[in-house]
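FYI - complex with heme C, inputs then prediction.
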Amino acid sequence: MKELVGLAAAPILAIAVFCTSAVADPIKDRQALMKDQGKTVGSITPIIKGEKPFDAALVISALKHLNEDAQKIDLVTLFPAGTDQGGETTASPKIWEDSAGFEAALTKYKADAAKAAAAEPKDIESFKVVFNQVTENCGACHKAFRIKKD
Ligand code: HEC
């Protein structure tokens, strides 16, 4: 007896994977944002130190730019789980162990940055107040959520 073996032709799925755009790199993206913030703060620090005269236009535009950067920092998109590994990063595992704490630090920073931008300081005294308020967030968050690598 002849057995007929019906062979179902398995559909061949040709999956073409196109990578037309650069793959998102949250580590690089967040570092670029942080670097830009460093640059912005660096541009107005000489005024705080009294090395340069107070310049309202420069100060106000710097504070607004800092605020724009600040509002872009996001735990989900820029700090996805696992990205304390697999790259040149100083992000501490504490960001994910204590994500509520990190979110709180981020929320406070964003609020202070928005306040500094809205303040539009017109003299060195009022500038100092908002500058100190916003920049204390940098050190506080770095201390808690960044590791020093040697
Ligand atoms: C809510 C937390 C948080 C705040 C607020 C914050 N940072 Fe950061 N910052 C980080 C973390 C985390 C890293 C490490 C990122 C990495 O290496 O992946 C970092 C890294 C940096 C770096 C190094 C970037 C690089 O190229 O490796 C600079 C510069 C920096 N921050 C500047 C600032 C300045 C200036 C401020 C305030 C105006 C600030 N940061 C506020 C969390 C914060």
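The chain has one domain: 26-145. Residues 26-145 form a domain with the Four Helix Bundle (Hemerythrin (Met), subunit A) fold (CATH 1.20.120.10).
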